[in-house]
Write a structure and sequence with these properties.
Strand content of chain A: 5-15%
Oligomer: homodimer
Largest sheet of chain A: 5 strands, antiparallel
CATH superfamily of the largest domain in chain A: Aminoglycoside phosphotransferase (APH), C-terminal lobe
Order of helices and strands of chain A: HHHEEEHEEEHHHHHHEEEEHHHHHH
Largest interface: A-B, 52 and 52 residues
CATH class of the largest domain in chain A: Alpha Beta
CATH topology of the largest domain in chain A: Aminoglycoside 3'-phosphotransferase, Chain: A, domain 2
Distance between the termini of chain A: 69 Å
Number of domains of chain A: 2
Shape of chain A: globular
Chain lengths: 428, 428
């Protein structure tokens, strides 16, 4: 059967039925070695949206990811177009020239099956798992800071004539179902009594009720929701939390960009930053007799800071070296006496990205604490009282970030406030 | 010949060759009456981009507008796709349900000829001409304020689920050539020694040199240029100056939306506001022995203020009555105690639109004073010294708006500053 004929109709693959379509690719067959019927295949998906298979042959292995036509966490009752697999591949193609080995190698994309054959990352694990296990990754913060800087700068109007971004904007404007999920689950549901929400109860009942009565907080969240839909600064990953990063001690890879669209750069920054903070707040729940996790917490906050500083430095360096786009056109700032004004404008722009990062981080934290989809950083804490205390601290910080942005103008202010506010809350 | 066959190939129409394609439409033939060969046809286009014909028959008349494949003001050496005619029609279709008779009736759009048959507006004249002639239009400011409020609100995420805007975003993202003109001629060329620029010389030489050395001014203009490309808040007209409005004493119509795209609402606000200010600054050049134009100037400033206040009031009323979109979702603010927070967020949003209006107005003023395309408000002032004085005052105000936005937080501050700064400049 030809590849063409085999792929036309969408069908959900399983460990047997994927051997045919995968085996059709001579290069994948060569990479795996042996015969398709002898390959070891196992489904390992633990996310909300896809089937993920590891296929192992005598010579090597690949990862096969297929988009499901519904939200896996909810089952077929929540349909969702598998088209997002197309946009995942379009995102990888768009950023690949700039981010080097920070994404997996893509071998094939099957448009009919919404299925991607890609590099198997091994012995990588999901960053979120590593952080829960108390592991450290010395390159992580710099790698992701560099990643966001490069992926976003080179898909913005700072780097290229605007026509290029407008073409991308038109393409990714069709990736609506993931954006609908973000709009509903991040920027709406957590702030009212949606039946999709859940929280640690009764421990968080009071805090959640207070959150849903907090008009200024809801207005701030709504402003970030509006910003999410109204500032296509760059092609963003759209879901860059610690479950979308795979790591070894020395290697970092960004995966799962199916929520990709043109949006605010701060949304990617905030996803990663906010999930580092969630990890920090969950640490007491993972303490053992041998490890109180205080050192791990300190390390996590250092990484949060290093992530931002790396992003900031790299983004500014790219702007200075590759600013050939229509935004801040080079022709306006070519004389030596213009350098100071440009530098000041660049600093102001980075300040808005910093504020956006904090606001989006707060929104991402809140949705993981009181919304539909939670994170195992907290869910794996068995003791509900302990879990509730961790979550309440995180929730208080997120509220402060949204309602008192004037208190968080620098990274030092943020990093100082986190343990201080938690101590204060514990003393109550 | 069938309509289909006749329209396939693009060709520039003239007073004779348009009779065929127009006459193919039975309803247009009925409206005009008589035989096509007997119709009176004259070309009346005075803009930069199109042929415009008035076709008169014994029963009535229509206007026929055809997009040229080049920039008319520059000639065939500056090619420009006639596709913009398609987007002009797409814009009219998108806003027609909301703006009532503030746009002309569209009878037919011929996709092959990039040609629109529309209502002939008579005895309307171009607003810019009326303002130069010292005429007053009692409904104008309220009509255009209402127009921008309705056209922008109902194409924003405040009114509808975001998917609707994303579809529009994808469509209008293809209207790149007009956006390229805006990006180059408004946000770049005026700020450096582009060969396309001109200004009243030598009278403005010094002011223009100072403008092009002013780093903070250029950074401010560049920020608005970046905003223009990065904030698709609504479907904007894209060129809403006083040459895109036709008026009688009682009727107001918005025409020529071929620059339409999803952009910042402040861009339309600023286009109209900035061109009212340009008209104010040009008034001394049109004074006669019988009319010093001081009264007309006062009336113009009152209209500028009334335009904004109408827009603001109407936009807020639409938000309160029709806010069914994903931005600021109603579910978050349904309790009575949420009303204050929502109102405060609405005021803050309108404040950003006000600041955007002033910034974009300043950019639009500067490009008409020192860039490629000027306005007849000034060009028709024969005395170059007088013209230069008028233009220098306008230029000084535009620079102040861009570099000292903190001095212009309210309409009263703007309206007070205009004559005051001009008196101060005259006293030098």
């Amino acid at each position: 059967m030809t590849e063409q004929a085999r792929s036309t109709a969408y069908r959900t693959l399983d460990s047997e039925s994927l051997r045919g379509p995968i085996g059709d690719h001579a290069d994948v067959r060569a990479l795996l070695g042996g015969r398709p019927q002898d390959w070891q295949v196992r489904e390992v998906g633990d996310g909300n949206l896809n089937l993920v298979f590891i296929v192992e042959g005598p010579e090597g292995s690949v990862c096969v990811k297929q988009a499901l036509p519904y939200l896996r966490a909810a089952g077929p009752s929540w349909p969702m177009s598998p088209e997002r697999a197309f946009f995942e591949n379009a995102y990888y193609s768009a950023v690949a020239p700039y981010v080097g080995t920070l994404i997996p190698k893509i071998y094939h994309y099957d448009a009919g099956l919404y299925c991607t054959v890609m590099e198997r990352l091994s012995p990588h694990i999901i960053l979120r798992q590593g952080l829960i296990a108390g592991r450290r990754y010395p390159n992580l913060a710099r790698d992701i800071g560099e990643y966001v800087a490069r992926a976003c700068f080179f898909t913005s109007d700072l780097a290229w004539p605007f026509e290029r971004k407008m073409d991308g904007l038109a393409l990714f404007a069709a990736n609506k179902p993931p954006v609908r999920i973000t709009v509903d689950l991040i920027f709406a549901d957590p702030y009212f009594a949606s039946p999709r929400n859940r929280h640690t109860s009764p421990q968080l009942d009071e805090a959640v009720a207070a959150l849903r009565r907090d008009g200024p907080l809801k207005a701030a969240a709504a402003r970030f929701g509006q910003k999410f839909l109204n500032e296509p600064q760059a092609l963003v990953h759209g879901d860059l939390h610690s479950g979308s990063v795979m790591v070894t001690e020395g290697d970092t890879r960004v995966i799962d960009p199916e929520f990709a669209f043109y949006g605010p750069i701060g949304f990617d920054l905030g996803a990663f930053f906010g999930n580092l903070l969630l990890s920090w707040y969950s640490q007491p729940g993972h303490a053992t007799r041998d490890d109180d996790r205080l050192g791990h917490g300190e390390w996590i906050l250092e990484q949060a800071s290093l992530f931002w500083e790396t992003f900031r430095g790299r983004f500014l360096a790219l702007w200075s070296g590759h600013g050939k786009g229509d935004a801040f056109p080079a022709a306006l700032f070519s004389a030596p006496h213009d350098a100071a004004a440009l530098r000041s404008a660049q600093d102001a722009f980075l300040d808005t990205l910093f504020a956006d990062m904090l606001g989006f981080a707060a929104c991402k934290m809140i949705r993981r604490l009181v919304g539909f989809a939670h994170v195992i950083d907290f869910d794996s804490i068995r003791d509900a009282d302990l879990r509730g205390r961790c979550e309440a601290s995180a929730l208080a910080m997120a509220r402060a970030l949204l309602t008192h942005p004037e208190q968080f103008r620098s990274m030092a202010q943020v990093i100082d406030a986190i343990p201080r506010m938690t101590r204060r809350q514990a003393a109550r």
